[in-house]
Amino acid sequence: MAIVLLTLVTLLYAGYNLFVKASGGHVPPEATTTILATFCLQAGAVASATAFLAFLALQGGHSFRLSQPAYLYAAAAGLCIGAAEVCYFYIFGGVGGIERLPASLAIPTVVSGTIVITLLVSVVLFGERLTLVQLLGAALVGAGIVAMFAGHRGSVHA
Predict the structure, then answer these.
(1) Are 94 and 156 in contact (CB under 8 A)?
(2) Global pTM value
(3) Rounded distance, CA 112 to CA 119, Å?
(4) What CA–CA distance (Å, rounded) separates 57 from 50?
(5) What is the pLDDT of residues 3-43, one digit of tens each?
(6) Would you call 94 exposed, middle or buried from its count of C-beta atoms within 10 A (0-12, 13-18, 19+)?
(7) How far apart are CA 41 and CA 53, in angstroms?
(8) How far is 95 from 112, CA to CA, in rounded Å?
(9) CB of 88 within 8 A of CB of 20?
(10) Can you tell me the distance from the alpha carbon of 110 to that of 14, in angstroms, rounded to the nearest whole number?
(11) What's the distance, CA 98 to chain centroid?
């Protein structure tokens, strides 16, 4: 079951990234901000979470109580993703003098960068151990990000 959920999460995150890019591609030239697109994204997230909460509540037999640290870390994650979404819409919308980046460059950079950062921070914060192969993989991902930007030729209107 874990592999099914992992596959679903991967597909949904890909959809998230691609739909943010699609939304940013429809920002009119006279727009000076994309913040309302971020609010629409968050409204969609709240709607899907609320629907799932209602489903579980109607199903019965679930305990919804979590520890205080669970709520605090979840709120911190929400702050991080909210700020990331604001930046994402600016990158894809090309407003405020920000260079509009293609999805083929921005999304792999963000996704790959999070892999490397998460891998390294997991050692420090969670005491996880890394193998030499994982470190080599992180170095290759970092090199891949550099290589992708080396081939980037300035502003893209996609």
Answers:
(1) no
(2) 0.82
(3) 11
(4) 10
(5) 999 999 999 999 999 999 999 999 999 999 999 999 999 99
(6) buried
(7) 18
(8) 25
(9) yes
(10) 12
(11) 19
